[in-house]
Amino acid sequence: MFDFNIALQSLIGLTVFLTLLFFFLLGYTFWTRKKQQYWERYEQKFRNYFFSLILDYAEQSDPKLNADEIIKKISKRTKDYSFFIKLLNELDDILDGTERERLNDLIKHPTFASFYQKKLFQFSTDSKIYACIYFQKRAHLESRILAKLITVSKSKNLKLAFAATKALQSADDWTIRKSALLRFLKRKDTSELMVAELLHVFDSGLAEERERVGEALKDLLLKKIDPYIKNVIVRYMGYQKFYECSKFLYQYLKRIHYSPEKASFIRGLIIALGELHYTEASELIKTYCGKGSNIPIRLAAVKTLSTFGGKENMTLLLDHLSKVEFPIRKAIIYEFMTGDNNRITLLISFVRKTLQSIKNIDKSNYDDQLNSYLDKILDITSGIKIALNHRLSKTYA
Amino acid sequence: MLDSFSLFNFIEQFIIGYFFTINTVYLALIVGALIYVRKQLLHSRSVEADALFKTELFKSISILVPAYNEADNIIESVESLLKLEYPEYQIIIVNDGSTDGTLQKLIDHFNLTKTDIYFEEQIKHEHIRNTYRSPDNPFITVVDKENGGKADALNAGINIAETELICSIDADSILEQNVLKKLIQTFIEHKNTVAAGGVVRVINGCKIKNREIKEIHVPKNFWARLQSVEYIRAFLFGRVGWDYFKSLLIVSGAFGIFDRQAVIKVGGYLTNTVGEDIELIVRLHSYHLRNNEDYQIRFLPEPICWTEVPTDYTSLRNQRNRWHRGLADSLWRHKYMLFNPSYKHIGMFVMPFFLFFELLGPIVNLLGYAYLIIVLSLPNLFNLTFILLFLAVSFIYGMIVSLIAVLAEEIAFKTYSSFKDVAILSLYSFLENLGYRQIHSWWQTKGLIDFFKGKKSWGKMIRKGFNE
Question: Do residue B423 and residue A26 have CB atoms under 8 angstroms apart?
Fold first, then answer.
């Protein structure tokens, strides 16, 4: 049974609590808003002042300033540093060439380096993340920072580990970059998009590093990494045209045995070989074209064989046309619509042959199987008509 | 057997316990969500995509816009979608048998021409009459189909789409320009994400120019202001809180992004329900848990979509009635998940919570208020202790929860342009508990009754449109 006094006390207590809470929170939110407005105004002033100064420095227009002189103008407040770095990063996205390099000199200035180094060594995850984001833009990282970043990259916190791994890609030591990448890719919680982002950061795009990057990617494929991650790696190799890795990828595809877990990886390998135009792989890829493999793999095989081109490959695709499921059928039809007119000629002769074979069918033997075949042929012809229209409209355009 | 005294005592304890529990859960969700949101916002820069978009490995998106009699704002809506920041996306507008010239407006404005599209009907939908594309703008596809409802229109769009992700939106919503870039962060951060939602906020009262929000203010309308409080409490912090426990059961129909193959695998949107958004999410949970497949359904705690809320009593009543019927329908269809350990925390905790507190809660609320009236009016039953406790756990505790939600929003997001708006919403968080919640409970109870009667209509909604 309820006690009256407790009930009354609860009511009074809650009412008082509500009133106090209301005024406290209202006051607190008011204060936080005022504080935010103050910093917004401050940032605006800060930007107005430093924007032209940094731009003059980057362009080396008169009066010629050096990095130290600009940095001296910043007060030692944390906010100033973060506003300054934010401004530098924004300009970094706009500027190019020597101007950008000069801008990077500012980013790399020891003042910021030591400021963010302190942050990196703080306990708070937020601080560490901020530091990692800063070090992603830095080059020539000191060994102490590198050591800490390596530790942080092993964190259980996925975002922190990701930020640290990205930062480690600024290291001069190649093995540090590679092992950081490998460590992250071995995690079980890594998303495909994270892998793609990291690979692009890992691959500097410099011609002199290309061979080394290719070798490193090949090496990663030999490590114990989940197949869905390997799928991203091989597709990256394909899209970024690592031609020198073609043979290796082909050998990999030759040796891999199909399992549902490896399906995405096999698909990735086929896509990559297509992108790399490694025609020697066509015989092997043909084996993935037929029924039995999963649809994404077969779609990749169709696309790759079409990329390779050649009468043999295209004829094989045509042979499959009337036997396969809709997505594959559609892919084959659209592949015939790309490229030269020979493909269209092949397709038309296929249609003619098929129509002839339909004419020769004994109409007294109609059954469900035949009906479904005829439905498929009807679907193929309408598909061809639609695809042809698309090709024509594109040509006219 | 219980004597009358202990029976009344039991009822009173049950009512007090119920109100205390539900408000405590909401308070915990809000406080937890506030901490989580602040962390998420601070850490979001670490998963900002940069290099990803320089590769061909990002996910392309099709935005599906189901449109039924949207002639007044469809052009502005599509034009604003064309301004979104994302490297590769398609817009598929599905004209769901409109009778007000929506299609003609689209044809005229975008210079559309009839084009056949070769696609497979992987999900059933009403007959497609024609498809159109613009020679000037290859990103736009218009599908003209027989009327079949929003879910049916979305299913047609899913069949036509060829991208990895699909994004379903309401034609009358306004999206932030960086919405897709923001939401892709959810897919970067969480492996195997199959669905993601974002914060849907009230647009009434905001200053809009060229379908871009210039200033954010509270609505001027009484009902809309109450809903603003509700959107913050339940749809912002409530959902963030559920997301924290990986237990999100609703991704708003006004804005949601999905893995297309995952949606096809579960059969697309259900057409014979009025709660197609919640039903799809429950089905996605059910499918992946049953098949022991890794998946995530997440919520991005940033305002990304703005929608107009009803401003008159009847429209609001109809909307809430429909929402409750949708919830009832989803829980009924997936009742096999309730207390079923195969469905893990969703079956053992989230679904029962939604059943007892969200679905049946309004009945308990109404019974509580009815009992209070009885106690107040019958001298024999008059129990001051109960009345005081009821006032404390129902009204005052409810006010605390709403107030904390409004002020937590200000602390975390500072969405509103002026502090005056925050003060107004704070006052409305008191008002919300004095009348609105009670009426709302009645609408929901009526919705439950209508569900059992088999009502399937959406109910009439009057929209005033955006004033620029």
Answer: yes
Burial class (CB in 10 A: 0-12, 13-18, 19+), A5: exposed
B interface test, pick of A90, A189, A193, A232 with most B CB neighbours within 10 Å:
A193
Instruction: Provide ipTM, 2 decimals.
Output: 0.87
Residues of A numbered 330-389 whose beta carbons fall under 8 angstroms of chain B's beta carbons: which are they?
Answer: 330, 333, 382-383, 385-387, 389
Are A237 and A245 contacting, i.e. CB atoms less than 8 angstroms apart? yes
* pLDDT single digits (tens) A204-250: 888 888 999 999 999 999 999 999 999 999 999 999 999 999 999 99
Question: Is A18 part of the contact surface with chain B (CB cutoff 8 Å)?
Answer: yes
Confidence tier at B13 by pLDDT (50, 70, 90): confident
CB under 8 Å to B191, separation ≥6 — which residues? Answer: A189, A190, A191, A192, B294, B296
Q: How far is CA B276 from CA B64, B121, B183, B333, in A?
A: 15, 19, 21, 12
- The pLDDT score that the predictor gives to residue B1 is 46
**Segment holding B283, helix H or strand E:** helix B276-290
Helices and strands in chain A: count of H runs, count of E runs: 20, 0
Contacts of A385 (CB under 8 A, 6+ apart): B116
The string of pLDDT tens digits covering residues B68-93 is 998 888 898 898 899 999 999 999 99
Give chain A positions within 8 Å (CB) of B412.
none
Cβ of B96: how many Cβ atoms within 10 Å? 27
Does residue B252 contact residue B197 with C-beta atoms inside 8 Å?
yes
